[in-house]
From TrEMBL:
Family recorded in the similarity comment: Belongs to the MotB family.
Lineage: Bacteria, Pseudomonadati, Pseudomonadota, Gammaproteobacteria, Oceanospirillales
Keywords per UniProt: Cell membrane, Membrane, Transmembrane, Transmembrane helix
Protein name (record): Type VI secretion system protein TssL
InterPro entries referenced in this protein's UniProt entry, alphabetically: Bact_OuterMem_StrucFunc, MotB-like_N_dom, OmpA-like, OmpA-like_sf
Record's compositionally biased regions (Basic and acidic residues): 244-264
Species of origin: Halovibrio salipaludis
One Pfam family linked to the record: MotB_plug
Length: 275
């Protein structure tokens, strides 16, 4: 009788468990996914983008939906963000906020307040000199002086500076202009002289429009600034803005009077303290 073949002993069944390296790889993927989710939780993206990205990770790794983590530390859309420091223009006394751009004006405090770190060093220095040395002109409202982070602004009252519809300086304002030139000449910096008008059309044989008048008034002041090279001509610019930069409401006589003005802006002045 033929002998039956001997059966080989069975080896361990490998179908019931996965190789060890697959378990290690799965753990590594889980750790990587957790790391990326933590990184996302500290980012500033909104919740919808967060959930979309987490969902894609879940689908990639075949995680159960009930294990998808909820976003933590993300800013709610309705929650106010921390305030960011910005330059907020401060209008001069009596003037409403400008529709387009304002002038940050600080009048009497300029000489008393210490220099602030966000203000160019020469700005408060020049503003203080102007306010202290031009006290009479400021008190009589012939001019107004103020500053913001990068510039000093000298604003001339239209009624005290030019006749109606003219670009010729009123004789009484010339000494004031001369004193301003003496002070500004102590500092280096870009000087921009800008003429402004109200929104009423001009009726003149000499000037075609408010653009012509505002530019001519700016040029009149520029001539005084660069006379005898007191201020280098290459540092000075004349500009006419017509009615495009109002600082008050043009619907009232008072507002139109405020809008008719000429401004001298000195940017980032570097002043000679020995003068």
């Amino acid at each position: 009788m033929a002998a039956l073949p001997k059966r080989r002993p069975r080896r361990g069944n490998t179908s019931s468990s996965s190789p060890g390296w697959m378990t290690t790889l799965a753990d590594m993927f889980m750790l990587l996914m957790t790391f990326f989710i933590l990184m996302l939780s500290f980012s500033s993206m909104d919740a919808e983008k967060y959930r979309a990205m987490v969902t894609s990770l879940v689908e990639a790794f075949n995680m159960a939906p009930d294990r998808m983590p909820e976003p933590q530390g993300l800013a709610d859309e309705d929650t106010e963000s921390p305030a960011i420091s910005e330059d907020v223009p401060i209008p001069m006394d009596g003037a409403p906020a400008a529709p387009s751009e304002g002038d940050a004006m600080l009048r009497d405090q300029a000489s008393a307040e210490p220099a602030r770190p966000d203000v160019h060093p020469g700005v408060e220095q020049l503003a203080s000199m102007l306010i202290s040395e031009m006290e009479d002109a400021v008190s009589e409202e012939q001019i107004d002086v103020g500053f913001d982070r990068q510039r000093v602004v000298i604003r001339f009252n239209d009624e005290a500076t030019f006749p109606v519809g003219s670009a010729e300086l009123i004789p009484d304002i010339r000494p004031v202009v001369d004193d301003i030139v003496d002070i500004v000449a102590r500092c280096d910096g870009e000087v921009i002289v800008t003429g402004h008008t109200d929104n009423r059309p001009i009726v003149s044989d000499r000037y075609r429009s408010n653009w012509d008048l505002s530019a001519a008034r700016a040029a009149s002041l520029v001539h005084e600034l660069v006379l005898n090279r007191a201020i280098p001509a290459e540092n000075v610019v004349a500009a006419g803005r017509a009615e495009t930069r109002p600082i008050a409401d043009n619907d009232t006589p008072e507002g139109r009077e405020k809008n008719r003005r000429v401004e001298i802006e000195i940017y980032e002045p570097d002043c000679d303290t020995g003068s």
